[in-house]
Specification:
20% strand; alpha+beta; 357 residues; 2 domains; six-stranded antiparallel sheet
C-alpha cells in the first residue's frame, strides 16, 4: 500500500459517505413532508418517529441505493482526478491502469463487506421496528384473516384450513391428511380448529378415518387434542416480512416452506439472492465508474455525471422490473436478482479493456 493508494481510498470512501448523508437527508425531508399528515392524524409520539422509523430508515435506504451511491461517487472524484491531470501524472510515474484499480478494488471490498453485514443482519433487526411502525400508523398491510391454507406441516402430513382468524386463533372447516408415500392412511376433518400453546391444537366435532388396505376405521367425537408443528403466526408471514429475517433465518424459512409444499416463497427467494447480488454490485459499479471517468474529456465532470445517472437509473429499473417478473413466475428468483449485475458486467468488461489500452 502506497501513499497514493490511501489517497484514492480516502477520496472514494469520503465521497461515498458524503453523498449518502446528502441524498438521505433530502430523502428524509421529502418522506417527512409526505407522511406528516399521517403522523398528526394518529398522534404519533416524536420518540417513535425518530427511533422506530427514521433511525432504521437510514441503513435500509443506504443499502438499497448503495449501487447508485458507489457509481456516482466513483465518477465524481475520478472525473475530478482526471480533470486535474492527476491520473496522467500517475501513469507518467509508472503506474499501470491495472495497478490504478487496486485501491478502487480495496474500497469496493470494504463496501461489499459493509453491504453484507447491513443486508444480512443489521437491517433485518432494525427494519422490524420500521415495518411495525408503518403497519401501525401509515399503511396497514398485516392481515388478520387467511383463507384456503394448505401446507405440509411435517413429512407426510397435509393440513388444510378454509378460513382462519388470527385474533382468536380459530380456524373453520379443516382437514388433516396423513400419507405413507403416496398412500393415504388417515384423514381427519373437523368443523373448527383452534390453537392452544406449544404446538397443541384442538379439533371440535371431528371425524377421523383410518385406512388399512381395504379396511376403513371410523372415529367421531366432539373434541380431539393433537400436536402439529406449526403456530398461527407462520400462516400470516407476508413478503414484507422477508426483510425482517436475517440471512440464516431467511434460508431456513425457505427450506421449511418448500418442505411443506408452500408456493408462496418467490418474494423470499428474490430477497435472499439480492442479499448476495447487491453487495457484489459494488465491484461492478466501481469498475464501470472508473472506466467511464478516468480519461480527461471535453465536457468535464458534468458529462460523466449525466451518463452515470442514466446508467444507475437503468440499473435500479432493471432490478425492480426483474423482481416483478420473478413474482409473476416469468423469471426465476436467481435471474431476477442477478440479471442487472450480469448486464452491467457485460457492459463494463469491454469498456475496461478499451480503457486499459
Amino acid at each position: 500500500m502506497k501513499r497514493l493508494d490511501w489517497y484514492i481510498i480516502r477520496k472514494f470512501l469520503g465521497t461515498f459517505f458524503f453523498s449518502i448523508v446528502l441524498i438521505l437527508s433530502i430523502a428524509i425531508v421529502f418522506d417527512l413532508t409526505e407522511k406528516m399528515d399521517d403522523f398528526f392524524e394518529n398522534q404519533v409520539p416524536l420518540r417513535e418517529i425518530i427511533f422506530d422509523y427514521y433511525l432504521p430508515f437510514i441503513p435500509y435506504y443506504m443499502n438499497m441505493f448503495s449501487s447508485l451511491f458507489i457509481f456516482i461517487s466513483v465518477i465524481f472524484f475520478t472525473s475530478k482526478l482526471a480533470g486535474n491531470s492527476e491520473i496522467i501524472a500517475m501513469h507518467a510515474a509508472g503506474m499501470s491502469y491495472h495497478r490504478l484499480m487496486v485501491p478502487y478494488a480495496l474500497s469496493a471490498t470494504l463496501l461489499f463487506v459493509l453491504g453484507m453485514l447491513l443486508g444480512g443482519w443489521v437491517i433485518p433487526r432494525s427494519s422490524e421496528r420500521m415495518l411495525h411502525f408503518t403497519d401501525k400508523y401509515v399503511d396497514h398491510f398485516t392481515s388478520e384473516h387467511a383463507r384456503n391454507l394448505q401446507l405440509e406441516v411435517e413429512p407426510g402430513t397435509i393440513l388444510y384450513i378454509e378460513s382462519f382468524q388470527r385474533r382468536s386463533n380459530i380456524g373453520y372447516r379443516c382437514s388433516i391428511e396423513k400419507f405413507d408415500g403416496k398412500t393415504l392412511i388417515e384423514r381427519t376433518t373437523a368443523d373448527r380448529i383452534y390453537y392452544d400453546s406449544l404446538e397443541l391444537w384442538h379439533l371440535d366435532t371431528y371425524t377421523r378415518r383410518r385406512f388399512d388396505a381395504m379396511r376403513e376405521t371410523l372415529d367421531k367425537g366432539r373434541r380431539l387434542d393433537i400436536t402439529l408443528p406449526i403456530i398461527p403466526d407462520e400462516m400470516f408471514i407476508t413478503a414484507q416480512q422477508a426483510q425482517q429475517m436475517t440471512t440464516p433465518e431467511l434460508r431456513h424459512y425457505m427450506q421449511r416452506q418448500r418442505e411443506r409444499g408452500s408456493g408462496n416463497v418467490k418474494a423470499f427467494e428474490v430477497e435472499y439472492h439480492k442479499r448476495w447480488a447487491s453487495p457484489l454490485g459494488a465491484f461492478i459499479m466501481t469498475l464501470l465508474g472508473v472506466t467511464m471517468s478516468s480519461r480527461k474529456v471535453r465536457g468535464g465532470m458534468g458529462k460523466n455525471l449525466g451518463i452515470g445517472l442514466i446508467l444507475t437509473a437503468g440499473y435500479i429499473l432493471f432490478s425492480t422490473v426483474s423482481t416483478t417478473f420473478s413474482v409473476n413466475n416469468v423469471m426465476s428468483p436467481f435471474m431476477a436478482a442477478w440479471l442487472p449485475n450480469f448486464i452491467f458486467l457485460a457492459i463494463s468488461i469491454p469498456l475496461y479493456i478499451r480503457a486499459s489500452k
